[in-house]
Amino acid sequence: MESKNTLINYVEFKATDLEKVKRFYSQTFGWIFTDYGPTYTAFSQSGLEGGFELTEDAIKNGALIVLYHENLLEIKDQIVEAGGVVVREIFSFPGGSRFHFMDPSGNELAVWSDK
């Protein structure tokens, strides 16, 4: 079986109005949504799973690419050794844990695990 480690697994967008964004993508592209509380909705049937997080902030770069790794501590250390900077420490959410980092060019990405 092929390892899921380090593959792009999820994409997360920001949204200022979850109901409007759900209506837009479901009507236009047929995406299906699952709400996880009042500030998050996940989508499927898009080719790549993802979600929208509610924000009141101005949206500059609204997409967050999320990689998968079964061992967050191991990959976090590798990211830092290679010159990445952790910008949000490991935190839990329904279904797993994740952290965010900046690559050497300033792109923010995340790594999650269900382990």
Give descriptors for this structure.
single chain, 115 residues, alpha+beta, eight-stranded mixed β-sheet, 2 helices, globular
Structure notes:
It is a single chain. The protein has 115 residues and is an alpha+beta fold. It contains two helices and eight strands, in the order E-H-E-E-E-E-H-E-E-E. Strand 3 (40-44) and strand 4 form a beta hairpin. An eight-stranded mixed β-sheet has the order 2-3-4-1-5-8-7-6, covered by helices on one side. The model has no long low-confidence stretch (mean pLDDT 92). Helix content is 19%, strand content 43%. It has helices spanning 18-29, 72-81; strands spanning 8-15, 32-35, 40-44, 50-54, 63-68, 85-93, 96-102, 108-113.
- Outline the biggest β-sheet: 8 strands, mixed
Shape: globular
What is the end-to-end distance?
18 Å
Which stretches are low in confidence, meaning pLDDT under 50 for 5 or more residues running? Answer: none
Strand neighbour order, sheet with most strands? 2-3-4-1-5-8-7-6
Please state the structural category.
alpha+beta
State the helix count.
Answer: 2
**Strand tally:** 8
- Give the integer mean of the pLDDT values: 92
Helix content: 10-25%
* Secondary-structure element pattern, one letter each: EHEEEEHEEE
How are the secondary structure elements laid out?
Elements: E1 8-15, H1 18-29, E2 32-35, E3 40-44, E4 50-54, E5 63-68, H2 72-81, E6 85-93, E7 96-102, E8 108-113
Parallel strand pairs: 1-4, 5-8
Antiparallel strand pairs: 1-5, 2-3, 3-4, 6-7, 7-8
